[in-house]
Design a protein that fits this description.
about 90 residues, alpha+beta, HU Protein, Chain A, 3-stranded antiparallel β-sheet, two-stranded antiparallel sheet, 3 helices, about 30% strand
């Protein structure tokens, strides 16, 4: 599902115009983004947890040439689904 489809679903459920539904979805996504920046974690009970994790610098290898390369340390966003969501998807 893309953001546009999600906006359409939200608009239909809440009887909103497309513009208002898209604005609502974007506000939610912005809230999740801000929560990750400020707190490093966003917990949505019944859905799951978004968390910022740090990955250490490492040495990788180019599979085509075999030449080693350094992959810089970075932060990534991970998601762990709740038991409720996991159970709903795995019916």
């Amino acid at each position: 599902m893309r953001r546009e489809q999600l906006s359409n679903t939200v608009g239909a459920a809440l009887n909103l115009s497309k513009a208002k539904a898209d604005e609502t979805v974007m506000a939610i996504l912005d809230g999740i983004r801000e929560g990750l920046i400020e707190d490093g974690e966003v917990v949505l009970r019944g859905f799951g947890t978004f968390k910022v994790r740090s990955k250490a610098e490492r040495i990788a290898r180019n599979p085509k040439t075999g030449v080693p390369a350094i992959v810089c340390a970075r932060k990534v966003v991970s998601f762990k689904s709740s038991k409720l969501l996991h159970g709903t998807v795995n019916v």
